[in-house]
Amino acid sequence: NLPSTEAEVSNLAMTADTMELLERNIGPFTFVSGFRTKELQSVLASTGEPTSAGTSFHELGRAVDIYPTTMGIAEFFAKILVDEELKNRFVEIAIKPGQNSIHLAINVPEDTRDPRVMALNADNVYARLTVDEITSYITPYMPSSEVAYDYAAAKLVTYNRMPLILTAAVALAGAAYLLLLSNRKTA
To answer: Average pLDDT, stretch 18-32?
Structure first.
C-alpha cells in the first residue's frame, strides 16, 4: 500500500502539511486511514466499508480518516468548520458518528470546489448536511445561533448552482428584451 506516482507523493506532502495545521489549530488526533491503493480500496469496498464510486481521494493521497484524542468528534468536526483557514483546505469534511471518526479530503490548487460538508449515515452512505444540521454543530463556537446559521448557509452548504445560473440568464434576457421593446416605442 505505497504511493507509486509523483502526483500521489505530492498530494501526500500537501496532506501532511494540512494535518500539521489541523493539529496546531484544533488539537491532536490519531489516523484511522490514509493513502490506499486501488487494490486496497477494492478490498475495503468488498467488506462493506463505505468507499467512493470511481477513484477515491484516498487513492490520490488526498484523504485521511482521523479521530480526535482530546475531544469528541462532534466538537472537533465543528471546530474545523468554523476555522476559515482550515475549512478552505478541504474539498470534503465528513463526520462518521458510527465509526467515531472524521473523513477529510484535501484541496489542491487545481481543485477550486467549495468543501462538501457531509455525514456518514446509518446506511453507510455519505449525505450532505443541511444548513440546520451544520448549524447544530457549529452554534457553540459562534457568537449566536443566528450567526452560526448565516455562516453555515453562506460558507458551508454547497448547492448545484446551474438552476440558479439558468434562472438568472433567463431573467437578464427578459430584462434586455423589455428594454429593447421600450426603446423601440420611444424611437
So the answer is: 97
